[in-house]
Fold:
Amino acid sequence: MKVRIINRSHHQLPEYATPSSAGMDLRANLEEPIVLKPFERRLVPTGLFISLPVGYEAQVRPRSGLAIKKGVTVLNSPGTIDADYRGEIGVIMINLSQDDFTVKDGERIAQMVITSHERVQWESVESLDDTQRGAGGFGHSGI
Structure:
């Protein structure tokens, strides 16, 4: 699938790290580093603009290495970029550690997954079909 992209950053286009990777790394596009204090959140620009086909979305997700090693993650995760959005892709980052974290220009800050989605038409009914789980909530299926 081809996706139109404008790269106003001074970094390479996002790419898959391995042939089986689902996501592509997004890089910070900064004039100067951003210091995230503990529990601080910031919108980090990427310099990328995309045009997705109708029926697709881009999901912005955390990078597991930043999360486990530094305590830094992505809020609103996964963040959805709709097919009709034409603004710059930004990553809402938060520092959940007790230490300052510096986001540097070109650093891989998130990953982006392109996926298809369906649109639904609601059908109002008086009851739903029975299942084994039924209305069982969180933790209902056991450990």
Observations:
- Helices lie at 64-70.
- The CA atoms of residues 102 and 111 lie 18 Å apart.
